[in-house]
Amino acid sequence: MLENQFQYDLPEAGCDEAGRGCLAGPVFAAAVILPADFHDPRLNDSKQMSARNRELLRVLIEREAVAWAVEAVSAGRIDEINILNASFEGMSLAVARLDPQPGFLAIDGNRFRTRLDIPYRCIVKGDGKYADIAAASVLAKTYRDAYMERLAGEFPQYGWASNKGYPTREHRLAIRRYGLTPYHRLSFNHEIDQLEFSF
User: Fold this and answer.
1) Is 11 helix (H, G, I), strand (E, B) or coil?
2) DSSP notation for 125-154
3) pLDDT of residue 114
4) How far is CA 55 from the centre of its chain?
5) Which residues pair with 27 in a beta bridge?
6) Helix/strand/coil (H, E, C) string of 23-82?
7) Which domains does the chain have, with CATH numbers?
C-alpha cells in the first residue's frame, strides 16, 4: 500500500512525467496535490497498472485531488533543451498551474532542477511508494497515451495507437520505410540496429 505523501508538514504535490524514452511525441508531466485521506488500492506506478485502471483512476484523481495539472513539452522543445531538461520544464510548468500552490514537491526520479521557489525531494521509484507521485504518473501517462492515439489517426503507419511512440521494432521499421514526421524527436537515435527499449 502506498504512503499518501512523502512529508506532512507542508502541502505536497507529487510530480512525474511520461514519455521520456519515446522517439516521437511530447513528454507529458503532471503535478497532483491529494487530500490527506485519499486512498485507492488500485493506485500504483502507472506502468504497473492496466490501461482500464489507469483510466478509472484518472477520473477519480481529477475529481478528488485538491489540485492537479498536466503539461506537455513538444518534440521540438525536447530537441532544443534535451529530454531531461524538458522533463524538468514540464513538471515545473505543471506545478506553476496548481491552485493552491504546494509548499513542497515530491519528484519521481533522482534529479530535478527548477526556478520555482519551492523545496523538493527527489525519490527514486517514488511512483511506487507515494500516492501523490503515483497519481501524477497516472495523469501524465493517460494524457500522453490519449494524445499519441489521436496522432495515430494522422500517421497510422507508425503504430502509435499501440506503441505510443516508444522505440519498438515496428516503430523503427516504419521510420526506415516512411521517414520522420514533424512529431519525431530529431535528437533521438531512430535506427533499427539500436536495441529495442534502449532508453
Assistant:
1) coil
2) TGGGTBHHHHHHHHHHHHHHHHHHHHHHHH
3) 97
4) 14
5) 73
6) CECCEEEEEEECCCCCCCCCCCCHHHCCHHHHHHHHHHHHHHCCEEEEEEECHHHHHHHC
7) 12-178 (3.30.420.10)
pTM recorded for the entire structure: 0.94
102 Cα distance to chain centroid: 19
Q: Give 88's contacts (C-beta < 8 A, 6+ positions apart).
A: 112, 113, 114
d(CA 53, CA 199): 26
* Total Cβ atoms within 10 A of residue 37: 7
Q: In what order do the strands lie in the sheet with 120-123?
A: 67-73, 27-33, 12-18, 104-108, 120-123
CB 27 within 8 A of CB 164: no
47-93, pLDDT tens digit by residue?
999 999 999 999 999 999 999 999 999 999 999 999 999 999 999 99
Q: How far apart are CA 24 and CA 163, in angstroms?
A: 10
Q: Measured over all CA atoms, what is the biggest interatomic distance in the chain, rounded to whole angstroms?
A: 55
Handedness of CA 15, 26, 141, 175 (dihedral sign): negative
Parallel/antiparallel/unpaired status of strands 67-73 and 27-33: antiparallel
The residue with cell 506502468 is 47
Query: CB within 8 A of 193, min separation 6: which ones?
Result: none
Mean residue pLDDT across the chain:
95
d(Cα 91, Cα 189) in Å, to the nearest integer? 25
